[in-house]
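Duplicate of #3305? Posting structure anyway:
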């Protein structure tokens, strides 16, 4: 199994933690702190529980909208399940939705028992195991972000989205996954999610998708280890920070539950703060040179700060900033940190110490529809984000009266400077994947997905997506994807997930007239414990 580590130099720790504490104090001005809650593990980002929580929110069974800072903790989800059950006393649930809540209750049984005073969260144990078979017929040499305009050493794969940087090999793939989580002390939990895979391209591979320890200091949660983050509201990705790349090993701080804001800021309702710091590859300089005699810095840092607010039950928004900064031979001085704090960066390559993406995202719940969006800038002008990119989406959770039919439409766009930088020339990437949205720079994406919940509790989905990559190039690459998805419960503790998809590329590999067709199918079985 792959080992991983994170190292912090003394001067970095002092400056980073000072910034983190300052952000939390500023973001929770006049907050009224409640008693510190229990510490629980986070729910992995690809778990079906997120689909169920969004459906419950859309159907009006959750009082307050979940925020755009994921992952959510098991305790968060257990509280939402209790909310949904209470709401169902006044508004009976359709049978398919009641079955989804039953699944959530089984998955979160120990946390629900603790909240209700019937027991306590469980010690460290196996929570879930999965076995997947996938077949991919595609040409991996075509799926690079390297183009005549950009030289980012990262790749993507059709019909494989938000998968923590994992790439399927050509032809057959066998994948075994596990989720281990639980308490190892009164206020400390351990979570491990290993993945073992074998495919036609290599003999086998072992990875730890997640592996972290989580504890608390008062109301503040402290996490150290490896895990994916998703900051945003997008259904098909995040402009800022998603799970397209391999998860990073980090130090993360956040409040374990939202804090109520008082004083003159009380109109903001409740808030939460997330701060993390991680370091990128120690080989970024040699990677840049190998990719065309470019420039970058080994061990560059990645510092993220996000504040989420819920002014009303039907509105939530987040403000976030993520900075790629420093690195070997590019350390920030005291005055540099002052400039970073106010967003004043260098105007030339010499002295350029950081690369920012900053902005906000939101979600508003109307009766029968949710509107969500993202607006982020990849540069700054006048101390504010510029070179903006955006995402706008509509989620219709109740196309039919009982909500069995649902629809999502989404549009996203980036400009030609996105995920690129003059000093950090490997761009917004980590270990061969983009830290943000897989569509890349100077791109446009349109998605439509329709879903049908079935009487047995299963769900069938039809998804269509068009992505135009590097639109300013004469040989702009167009990617059309269509896929069917299906999931259902087979037995008391056994679940089935399946997918079948086709993709077509025009101007494949940014070569005029070239084309490529891809086929992907996958079937997986999950066992819960």
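Output from current build:
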């Amino acid at each position: 199994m792959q080992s991983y580590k994170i190292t912090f130099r003394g001067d970095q720790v002092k400056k980073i933690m000072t910034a983190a504490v300052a952000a939390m104090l500023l973001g929770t001005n006049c907050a009224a702190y409640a008693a510190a809650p229990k510490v629980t593990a986070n729910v992995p980002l690809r778990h079906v529980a997120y689909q169920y929580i969004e459906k419950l929110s859309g159907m009006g069974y959750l009082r307050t909208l979940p925020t755009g800072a994921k992952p959510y903790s098991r305790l968060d989800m257990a509280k939402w399940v209790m909310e949904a059950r209470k709401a169902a006393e006044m508004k009976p649930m359709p049978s398919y939705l009641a079955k989804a809540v039953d699944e959530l209750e089984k998955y979160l049984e120990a946390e629900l028992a603790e909240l209700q005073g019937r027991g306590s969260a469980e010690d460290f144990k196996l929570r879930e195991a999965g076995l997947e078979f996938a077949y991919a017929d595609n040409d991996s040499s075509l799926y690079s972000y390297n183009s005549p305009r950009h030289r980012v050493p990262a790749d993507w794969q059709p019909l494989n989205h938000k998968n923590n940087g994992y790439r399927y090999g050509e032809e057959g793939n066998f994948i075994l996954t596990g989720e281990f989580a639980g308490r190892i002390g009164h206020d400390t939990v351990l979570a491990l999610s290993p993945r073992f895979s074998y495919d036609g391209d290599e003999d086998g591979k072992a990875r730890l998708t997640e592996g972290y320890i989580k504890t608390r200091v008062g109301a503040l949660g402290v996490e150290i280890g490896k895990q994916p983050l998703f900051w945003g509201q997008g259904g098909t990705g995040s402009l800022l920070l998603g799970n397209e790349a391999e998860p990073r090993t980090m130090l993360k701080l956040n409040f374990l539950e939202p804090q109520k804001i008082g004083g003159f800021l009380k109109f903001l309702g409740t808030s939460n703060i997330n701060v993390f710091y991680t370091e990128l590859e120690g080989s970024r300089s040699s990677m840049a040179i190998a990719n065309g005699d470019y420039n970058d810095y080994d061990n560059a840092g990645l510092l993220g700060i996000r504040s989420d607010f819920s002014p009303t039950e039907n509105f939530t928004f987040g403000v976030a900033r993520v900075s790629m900064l420093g690195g070997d031979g590019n350390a920030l001085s005291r005055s540099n940190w002052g400039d970073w704090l106010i967003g004043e960066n260098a105007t030339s390559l010499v002295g350029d110490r950081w690369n920012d993406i900053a902005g906000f995202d939101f979600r508003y719940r109307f009766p029968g529809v949710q509107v969500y969006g993202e607006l982020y800038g990849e540069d700054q002008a006048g101390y504010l984000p510029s070179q903006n990119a955006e995402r706008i989406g509509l989620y219709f959770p109740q196309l039919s009266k009982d909500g069995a039919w649902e629809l999502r439409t989404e549009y996203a766009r980036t400009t030609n400077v996105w995920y690129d930088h003059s000093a950090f020339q490997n761009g917004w990437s980590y270990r061969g994947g983009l830290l943000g949205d897989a569509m890349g720079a100077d791109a446009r994406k349109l998605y439509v997905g329709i879903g049908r919940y079935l009487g047995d509790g299963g769900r069938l989905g039809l998804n269509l997506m068009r992505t135009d990559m590097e639109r300013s190039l004469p040989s702009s690459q167009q990617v059309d994807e269509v896929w069917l998805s299906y999931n259902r419960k087979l037995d008391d503790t056994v679940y089935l997930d399946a997918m079948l998809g086709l993709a077509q590329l025009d101007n494949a590999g940014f070569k005029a007239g070239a084309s490529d067709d891809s086929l992907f199918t996958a079937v997986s079985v999950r066992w819960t414990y």
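Confirmed duplicate; merging threads. The chain is about 15% helix and 45% strand. The radius of gyration is 22 Å.
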